[in-house]
């Protein structure tokens, strides 16, 4: 279950474009950007022939820069695009009944956001940049048209949707049956796993989100998150300096999440 939970805490959503932050690119510029992008393996299908690759290159209509704290889209806005994150971190959230923001996910470079809007043609959550970010804007009607021509793209979109379902199941498990230590351990394992897939360290990370946002996502109070981090430090599992976290004992985190598997 360690790998299941650690690999299921992933994505959500998409948005609208405003002239202030949207940069139209010439076809040749986009082709170079997509074909040679070091994140292409994460957000685009693999094994395409040259003709299919040319078609995929034309999929991205523009790039959009999003300033820290600025929404990529808001709940209720009309759905028109999916977004591939090139740089930066996002959080997705919904407003709870008491008016507070409930964080539903954290997204990073190489991940696709905007899937929430497909069902009702409007977005059901907010997507906010946690740092200055840039996304590739992919019109969904263009994705649908191209999926009929490039089977690999259709399969890839299905995989992204399936991954989101698996992620939501993992979050339900996380919130429904895990103690605070298990939740935070699973969160850290998942985060470092995703970052490592992008070429970053397997043991060190900088948290782009606040402790409060982590607590909102994990269903924990701020005090509980801080106390659990402190316990991990005291136990020699992690080293924490503000937002910089160094994992000293990965096996110990896995043991916390699933002691049966780790000890067998």
Commentary on this structure:
The structure is a single chain. The protein is α+β, with helices and mostly antiparallel strands and 264 residues long. The chain has 2 domains: 2-170, Sandwich (Jelly Rolls), CATH 2.60.120.10; 178-263, Arc Repressor Mutant, subunit A, CATH 1.10.10.10. Helices cover 43% and strands 22% of the residues. It is built from 11 helices and 12 strands. It has helices at residues 2-6, 27-35, 40-43, 50-57, 140-149, 151-177, 180-196, 211-218, 222-234, 250-257, 259-263, and strands spanning 22-24, 62-66, 71-73, 81-87, 89-95, 101-108, 112-113, 126-129, 133-139, 204-206, 238-241, 244-247. A 5-stranded antiparallel sheet has the order 1-2-9-4-7. Strand 11 and strand 12 form a beta hairpin. The longest helix is centred in the middle third of the chain and has 27 residues, at 151-177. It is globular and about 55 Å long. It starts with a helix and ends with a helix. Residues 1-32 have low confidence and may be disordered.
Q: Into which percent range does the helicity of residues fall?
A: 40-55%
Strands of the widest sheet, in order across it, are 1-2-9-4-7
User: Based on CA inertia axes, which overall geometry fits?
Assistant: globular
For the sheet with most strands, the description reads:
5 strands, antiparallel
Q: Regions with pLDDT < 50 over 5+ consecutive residues?
A: 1-32
């Amino acid at each position: 279950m360690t790998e299941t939970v650690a690999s299921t805490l992933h994505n959500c959503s998409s948005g609208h474009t405003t002239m202030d932050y949207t940069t139209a690119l010439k076809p040749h510029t986009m082709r170079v950007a997509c074909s040679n992008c070091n994140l292409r393996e994460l957000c685009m299908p693999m094994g395409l022939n040259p003709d299919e690759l040319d078609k995929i290159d034309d999929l991205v209509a523009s790039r959009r820069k999003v300033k820290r704290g600025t929404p990529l889209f808001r709940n209720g806005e009309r759905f028109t695009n999916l977004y591939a994150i090139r740089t930066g971190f996002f959080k997705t959230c919904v407003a709870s009944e008491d008016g507070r923001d409930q964080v539903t996910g954290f997204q990073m470079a190489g991940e696709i956001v905007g899937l929430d809007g497909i069902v009702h043609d409007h977005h059901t959550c907010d997507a906010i940049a946690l740092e200055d970010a840039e996304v590739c804007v992919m019109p969904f009607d263009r994705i649908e048209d191209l999926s009929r021509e490039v089977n690999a793209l259709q399969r890839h979109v299905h995989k992204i949707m399936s991954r989101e379902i698996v992620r939501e199941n993992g979050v339900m498990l996380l919130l429904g049956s895990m103690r605070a230590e298990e939740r935070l351990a699973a969160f850290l394992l998942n985060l470092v796993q995703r970052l490592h897939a992008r070429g970053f360290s397997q043991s060190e990370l900088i948290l782009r989100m606040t402790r409060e946002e982590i607590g909102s996502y994990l269903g924990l109070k701020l005090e509980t998150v801080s106390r659990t981090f402190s316990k991990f430090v005291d136990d020699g599992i992690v080293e924490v300096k503000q937002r910089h976290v160094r994992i000293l004992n990965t096996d110990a985190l896995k043991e916390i999440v699933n002691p049966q598997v780790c000890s067998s």
